[in-house]
Design a protein that fits this description.
Blueprint: E1 18-20, E2 23-25, E3 30-34, E4 41-46, H1 50-69, H2 72-88, H3 90-101, H4 105-125, E5 132-134, E6 142-149, E7 152-156, H5 164-176, E8 179-183, H6 190-202, E9 209-211, H7 216-225, E10 229-235, H8 238-249, E11 254-258, E12 263-267, H9 273-285, E13 295-301, H10 302-317, H11 337-352, E14 356-359, E15 374-377, H12 384-387, E16 394-400, H13 403-411, E17 415-416, E18 418-422, H14 426-435, E19 440-443, E20 458-459, E21 462-463, E22 476-483
Parallel strand pairs: 7-8, 7-10, 8-9, 10-11, 12-13, 12-18, 13-16, 15-16, 18-19
Antiparallel strand pairs: 1-2, 3-4, 5-6, 6-22, 11-21, 14-15, 17-20
Helix pairs in contact: 1-7, 2-4, 2-5, 2-6, 3-4, 4-5, 7-8, 9-10
The structure holds nicotinamide-adenine-dinucleotide (NAD).
Nicotinamide-adenine-dinucleotide binds next to α7 and α8.
Protein name: NAD-dependent succinate-semialdehyde dehydrogenase
Family: Belongs to the aldehyde dehydrogenase family.
GO molecular function: succinate-semialdehyde dehydrogenase (NAD+) activity
């Protein structure tokens, strides 16, 4: 297999080893990391299993007492140092990310800054882990609640945001005083290893942050069952999330689940058409549609429908498709052949049931993993694309008449992660935002993600929140102290 030539100003950020207890560990078995744009080999990483995971958990358990005993300010300073190292190395980290994941370099740079944002936010939050004093129920008693780190955290992350999905778990966990064993997606481990290298350089002690790749089921099995792991935090598909929830039940671990989405995007007749189209492009085609908060169902009112479809189609057709590291690219490849096949099958099913291709609807000549930005009109609830997350650059458009009808369509999903709508009616803005069964709502915007706000879903989209003030809560236990004989 040919290899991708990756030029970094600091080549030591490209690591092909796992990081356990402060040591780089290789293995006899390896996994190939493939550039999705070209199908070439980027790197080979270890394929580790249960024994190494057990070693990593023990290392994290050993590192825990000293780490949690640091003052909040000491932990905060180390996290800020890691933040600074991410920013200092943004160009190399973006190149690594694009090589393994495919997204355009500009998006990769944005992701590294977004990930660094979580480190800064939780470095700040580390110093605000307050407890409470509680008015006592008896004159001779005094009541206090304190908050303490949960302990060792097992983290499992997906390939679509290889840096940020880790940063938003690592930062609150370490800020709270927890230690971590991370299994990143095997398709995109290089960003995770680079983060481990920067954590080492920042002075985060050995054993506090461990990263390993390999047999996902074996690693996940140890993380979910080992008694020393007190919390599982997962971002990925709903199917794997359910499996991990079941596995973690036996030892009653705390769990956070950031699972799949199927976001509705409603455009009302009174919307600003151009703003709605720009919002749709941002919410749909970023990361080639491989984002959990991607708009997946465009629900458009009859009066604005035809104009919206026409403009969105023109914008989608004009998006420049190509390798993420090529000048001017705004649409990279999908992650692999399986992802392209899924998009193809969703589009074929929709066309078979009467949907009309406005633009795209086919693979793209840029390479095997490329799919043309697509808009489909005439979509109905019976089509697979209406029920399942496509995870690709396809915008299916439904038509509706009344607000009630739009809400019924929007809420007809087991998922409840993000939702979007465009309107200029303030009363409707409140009504619809409150009625949408989702964890996050974009009103007159297609971009909602930020480290300062709580990110997460309802229904089968997950449990818990990442970011914002809520993001550190899942890594803390509350302990109530009752003083008597005062
Ligand atoms: P995935 O569930 O296939 O994989 C996610 C992670 O789980 C990977 O690290 C994978 O190796 C691991 N995994 C797979 N099987 C496992 C097992 N049996 N035991 C332990 N670990 C296992 O998901 P994906 O394809 O990598 O990511 C795409 C999905 O993630 C989409 O559904 C997307 O919506 C979702 N996602 C959600 C959020 C969110 O915040 N809600 C963010 C990003 C992605």
């Amino acid at each position: 297999m040919t290899t991708t030539s990756l030029t970094l100003s600091d080549p030591s950020l490209l690591r092909e080893a796992c990081f356990i207890d402060g040591e780089w560990i290789t293995g006899a078995d390896t996994l190939d990391v493939i550039d999705p744009a070209r199908g070439t080999l980027v790197a080979r990483v270890p394929r580790l299993g249960a024994a190494e995971t057990e070693a990593a958990v023990i290392a994290a358990e050993r590192a825990l007492p000293a780490w949690r005993a640091l003052t909040a300010d000491e932990r905060s300073r180390l996290l800020m140092k890691l933040h600074d190292l991410l920013i200092d190395n943004v160009e190399d980290l973006a190149r690594l990310l694009t090589a393994e994941q495919g997204k355009p370099l500009a998006e990769s740079r944005g992701e590294i800054r977004y990930g660094a944002g979580y480190l800064r936010w939780f470095a700040e939050e580390a110093r605000r882990i307050y407890g409470e004093t509680i008015p006592a129920h008896a004159a001779d008693k005094r009541l206090i609640a304190i908050r303490q780190p949960v302990g060792v955290v097992g983290a499992i992350t997906p390939w679509n945001f290889p840096n940020a999905m880790i940063a938003r778990k690592l930062a609150p966990a370490l800020a709270a005083g927890c230690t971590m064993v991370l299994k990143p997606a095997e398709l995109t481990p290089l960003s995770a290893f680079a983060l481990a290298e920067l954590a080492r350089r920042a002075g985060i002690p050995r054993g506090v942050f461990n990263v390993l790749t390999g047999d996902a089921a074996a690693i996940g099995g140890v993380l979910t069952k080992h008694p020393a792991v007190r919390k599982i935090t997962f971002t990925g598909s709903t199917a794997v999330g359910k499996l991990l929830l079941a596995q973690a039940a036996d030892t009653v671990k705390k769990v956070s689940m950031e699972l799949g989405g199927h976001a509705p995007f409603i455009v009302f007749d009174d919307a600003d058409l151009d703003a709605a189209v720009e919002g749709a492009v941002a919410a749909k085609y970023r990361n080639s549609g491989q984002t959990c908060v991607c708009a997946n169902r465009f629900i458009v009112q009859a009066g604005i429908h035809d104009a919206f479809v026409e403009k969105l189609g023109a914008r989608a057709a004009a998006l420049k498709v190509g390798p993420g590291d090529a000048e001017g690219t705004v649409q990279g490849p999908l992650i692999d052949a399986r992802a392209v096949a899924k998009v193809e099958s969703h589009v074929a099913d929709a066309i078979g049931q009467g949907a009309r291709v406005v633009t795209g609807g086919r693979r793209h000549e840029a390479g095997a993993n490329f799919y043309a930005p697509t808009v489909l009109a005439g979509v109905t609830p019976a089509m697979r694309i209406a029920r399942e997350e496509t995870f690709g650059p396809v915008a299916p458009v439904f038509r509706f008449e009344t607000e009630a009808e739009a809400l019924a369509l929007a809420n007809a999903s087991e998922s409840g992660l993000a939702g979007y709508f465009f309107t200029r009616d303030i009363g409707r803005a409140f009504r619809v935002a409150e009625a949408m069964e989702v964890g996050m709502v974009g009103i007159n915007t297609g971009l909602i993600s930020t480290e300062v706000a709580p990110f997460g879903g309802v229904k089968q989209s997950g449990l818990g929140r990442e970011g914002g003030r809520a993001g550190i809560e899942d890594y803390l236990e509350i302990k109530y102290l009752c003083f008597g004989g005062i």
